[in-house]
Amino acid sequence: MSIEDPSPIAIDLVADIASSECFIGLRLIRAVVGTVPGLSVDIRWRPFQIDPDMPPEGQDRAAYLAEKCGPPGEVHEVLANLSELAREFGLELAYDKIQRQPNTLDAHRLIRFARNFGVEMAIVEALFEAFFLRGQDIGDRGVLAAIAGRKGIDPELVEAFLSGSDDIGAMKQELSGFRALGVEDVPRFIIAGKETITGVKSIEDFADALFRSIEDE
């Protein structure tokens, strides 16, 4: 398969930084781009919180997993299956390094703030890597500022922004938007405003959806 039209295909990625499936979903998009000659995409981050009622300070990771998945054996099975899926896309998830399940409000605020500097998706990638590969607490503003600094945004500027509250109302409204439409599971991919895919699919199935979106034009 190949793409003759060089125009980027818009992909709205509805996702949360605290979801490993969303991290894998982003890598799925990258994998498809790498396998289809001439394919160009414009990934647009659409924020979602899988746990909108998470306390601001987050929660102990072990307690969180017990609530979500059940006994240790079931937790192990869920994480093992996700780890196996992640490896298909070149990711070695370090679940054992994660100590806290974060509230991702500030992470989403940072992503939105990063649009002003043209590094939105670079920040998304960096946040996923910080949490799932290094076990960093991405609910901590100091951690967020340091991540932003490595992508060229002044850490002090980030800390000042996150300490403010002018954007929080709009951010919460955006976060609740897809849930109000009935979205409960992420990642969700909206391709060219037409095709909608929920969950991580095979590279072939995702590429087919991309081609259908072009054929419908």
UniProtKB/TrEMBL annotation:
Pfam families: DSBA. InterPro entries: DSBA-like_thioredoxin_dom (IPR001853), Thioredoxin-like_sf (IPR036249). Gene3D superfamilies: Glutaredoxin (3.40.30.10). GO terms for molecular function: oxidoreductase activity. Coiled coil: none annotated. Residues 11-210 form the DSBA-like thioredoxin domain. This is Disulfide bond formation protein DsbA.
